[in-house]
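[09:14] KT: can someone run the structure on this one? pasting the chain below
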Amino acid sequence: MEPLVDRVIAAARGQRIEILFVDDSDDGTPGEVLAAARVGRPSVRLIHREPGERRGGLGGAVVEGLRQARSSWAV
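[09:31] RB: done, structure tokens below
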């Protein structure tokens, strides 16, 4: 997870950014995201949707991420 976060930060070229992960998995992904967030990076947030909240598959996760984003722009 940390290499991905590093690449996103590098691509942002000093812009103020928020990295938002919406996770519907039952594996160790939440822990990986939280570890990446703890190492002094810009805003890295996790939305972990529990089994009863996982509606709409990948598209539903994208929509949830857009709803939760704090910026006027999302990529």
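[09:33] KT: thanks! The chain has three helices and two strands.
[09:34] RB: yep, looked fine to me
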